[in-house]
Amino acid sequence: MPDRKDDVYGDHISHKFNDELMELKTQFLEMGGAVESQVERAVKALIDSDGELAEQVRLKDKEVDKQEVALDEEATLIIARRQPTARDLRLVISVIKMVADLERVGDEAKKIAKLAIKLSEEGQAPRGYVEVRHIAGHVQSMLHDALDAFTRLDSEQALRIMKEDKRVDEEYQAAARTLLTFMMEDTRNISRCMSVMWVLRALERVGDHACNIAENVIFMVEGEDVRHTSIEEAERVVGG
C-alpha cells in the first residue's frame, strides 16, 4: 500500500497525545467487536428459536450504549485538550461519527433479538430464514471488513464495502418479494412473514451503517468526504 496510507496517526512529540489517540482507536474497535457479536448472536437466536439467547442480546444493548457515551466523552476531551488539526482532527471526528453508526448497529441487533423472542414464542418457524442467513452473512462480512479497514487505514477496502452496499439492497428487495409471495399464497403466514421482513430490514440497515463507517475511513485516509457521492466519485478520491 502507498506510504500515505500508513498509520500516521499517533506520531507526535507529545507521548500523552499518542496514548490518547491509541486509546480512542482501541476503545472504538472494542465497541466494534461488541456490536459484531450482538448481530451474530441475534441472528443465531432467531434461526435456532433460542429465546434465552435473544434476551441476552437485548439486555447487552445497554452496555453498547455505555460504550458510545464513553467514546463520545473521550473524543470530546481530546478535541478540547489537544485542539488537533488536519489528520488528527479527521480521526477524532470520524470516530465520533462511526461510534454513532456502531450504536445503531447495536440497536438493529436488539430489534432482531426482540423479533426472535416473538417468533420463538409463536412456535412454527416461518419462511424466509434462508434469505435471513444469506443477507446476515453478507452484512456481517461488511461490518467486519469496515472495522478492519479502519484498523489498517485501508481506503481501497473501504471503497469495496461501499460497492457491496448496493448488492445488499438488491438482495433485500429480492427477499422481500419472496416473502410477499409466501403471504399471498397463505394469509396465515402474514404475521410471521412480516416479522421476518422486519429482520431483513434491520440487517439491510446494518449494511448501511457498515457503508457509513467505510465512507468515514476514506475521509480519514484521503481527506475528502465521499458521503452522498457516486461510487465513481469515491473511486476518483481513493485512486487519486
Automatic annotation (TrEMBL):
Subcellular location: Cytoplasm
Complex formation: Homodimer.
Species in which this protein is naturally found: Marinobacter persicus
Alphabetized UniProt keyword annotations: Cytoplasm, Phosphate transport, Transport
Function: Plays a role in the regulation of phosphate uptake.
Similarity comment: Belongs to the PhoU family.
UniProt cross-references to InterPro entries, sorted A to Z: PhoU, PhoU-like_sf, PhoU_dom
Record NCBIfam families: phoU_full (TIGR02135)
Pfam family of the protein (one): PhoU
Domain PhoU: 29-115, 133-217
Alphabetical GO biological process terms: intracellular phosphate ion homeostasis; negative regulation of phosphate metabolic process; phosphate ion transport
PANTHER family cross-referenced by the UniProt entry: PHOSPHATE-SPECIFIC TRANSPORT SYSTEM ACCESSORY PROTEIN PHOU
Any single Gene Ontology cellular-component annotation: cytoplasm
Protein name (Swiss-Prot/TrEMBL): Phosphate-specific transport system accessory protein PhoU
